[in-house]
Amino acid sequence: MKDSMPQVGAPDPELKNSPIIDEVEYDAEQATPGLEIEAPVCYFNGVVFALGEYVRSGSEVLQCAERGVWLRKGERRPD
C-alpha cells in the first residue's frame, strides 16, 4: 500500500516552520492559551499545509492542527 502522507524530512531552521508539540501540550494550551500562534495553516520548511493534513518527518507522523501548530500523532516506519 502506498503511503499518501508526504515525507517532509527534518525541519530546516533556515526556513519557516510551525511549532511541533505533543497532543497533551496542545490540550493544555486549549484550556489556558499560552502560545501566541493563530494561523489558519501550518508551515514545514517553507511549504504551506492546510489544517487537518498529515505529513511524515522521518518516522514521526504530524498533523496540522488549529492555531497553526503541528501535533505529534505517533510514528510510522518506512516501508
Describe the structure.
The chain has one helix spanning 23-31; strands at 20-22, 41-44, 47-50, 54-57, 60-65, 69-75. It is mostly beta strands and 79 residues long. A four-stranded mixed β-sheet has the order 1-6-5-4. The chain has a two-stranded antiparallel sheet with strand order 2-3. The radius of gyration is 12 Å and the shape is globular. The N and C termini lie close together (9 Å).
Tell me the Rg in angstroms: 12 Å
The low-confidence parts are: none
Overall mean pLDDT stands at 84
The count of domains is 1
Categorize the overall geometry.
Answer: globular
β-strand number: 6
Structural class: mainly beta
Distance between the termini: 9 Å
How can the largest sheet be summarized? 4 strands, mixed
Strand sequence of the main sheet, in spatial order? 1-6-5-4
- The H-and-E topology, N to C, reads as EHEEEEE
**Beta-strand proportion:** 35-45%
Fraction in helix: 10-25%
What is this structure's SSE topology?
Elements: E1 20-22, H1 23-31, E2 41-44, E3 47-50, E4 54-57, E5 60-65, E6 69-75
Parallel strand pairs: 1-6
Antiparallel strand pairs: 2-3, 4-5, 5-6
Give the structure's gist in a few sentences.
The chain is mostly beta strands and 79 residues long. The chain has one helix at 23-31; strands spanning 20-22, 41-44, 47-50, 54-57, 60-65, 69-75. The model has no long low-confidence stretch (mean pLDDT 84).
